[in-house]
Amino acid sequence: IELEKQFGPFEIAIGHSLGGMTVLNAVKSGLQVEKIAVIGSGDIVQDILDNFVVRLELKPIISQKLRDYFENKYGEAMANYSAYKAAATLDIPILVIHDHHDYEVPVQAGINIHQHCKNGELMLTEGLGHRKILGDSQVIKKIIEFVKIKN
Q1: Whole-angstrom Cα distance, residue 77 to residue 80?
Q2: What is the pLDDT of residue 151?
Q3: Rounded-to-integer distance, Cα 66 and Cα 137, Å
Q4: Cα separations in angstroms, 149 against 12, 26, 67, 91, 111
Q5: C-alpha–C-alpha distance, residues 151 and 4, integer Å
C-alpha cells in the first residue's frame, strides 16, 4: 500500500512465492488493483513457517514459538494471512500459476488458492520448478493475455 501511495495507482499486481501471498493480502487490506497474478505462491502460513524451521534444522517447537510471538505482538491469528483466505475475499480476476514439480512450494498450494478464488484461473505447468517458471515463454504469454483481457 505504501508503493501505491508513492508510485500508484496500479492496474495489476504480480507476485512470486511469498510475494504472491503478500500481493493477495495487500489487496485484501485495501490495495486497489484490477487483477492479480500469483506464481508459485505460498498458501498456508503455518506450513510455510514449519518448512522454514525444518530447512534451518531448528527444533519444531520454534515454529510454535514464532507463531505465538506474532499472534501476541499483533493480536491476530497468523493463519488469517494464508493466501487462500485472502483470495476468498476478493472479487477481482486472479491468475494462479504453479508448477507440478515445484519442490519449494507444493503444487497443492496453488490449487488450494485457486479453489478459493471467486474469479480465478489456474495454469499448471510441468518441469519448471519454482524459479524457471518465471522465465518460461508460455507463462509470460499467459500473463500478458490475462493482463490484456478487459473486465
Answers
A1: 6
A2: 62
A3: 39
A4: 12, 23, 40, 16, 22
A5: 21
Q: Is 99 helix (H, G, I), strand (E, B) or coil?
A: strand
Q: Tell me the three state secondary structure of residue 94.
A: strand
Task: Write down the residue that cell numbers 519448471 correspond to.
Answer: 128
Helix (H, G, I), strand (E, B) or coil at 3: helix
What is the tens place of the pLDDT at every residue in 64-84?
A: 999 999 999 999 999 999 999
The per-residue pLDDT for range 15-67, each reduced to its tens digit, is 999 999 999 999 999 999 999 999 999 999 999 999 999 999 999 999 999 99
Residues of 117-139 as b/e, b for ≥16 C-beta within 10 angstroms?
A: beebeebebeebebeebeebeeb
Chain CA centroid to CA 40, Å: 7
Supply the pTM of this predicted model. 0.91
Are residues 20 and 43 in contact, defined by beta-carbon separation less than 8 angstroms?
no
C-alpha–C-alpha distance, residues 47 and 108, integer Å: 12
**pLDDT grade, residue 93 (50/70/90)?**
very high
- The total number of residues shown for the chain amounts to 151
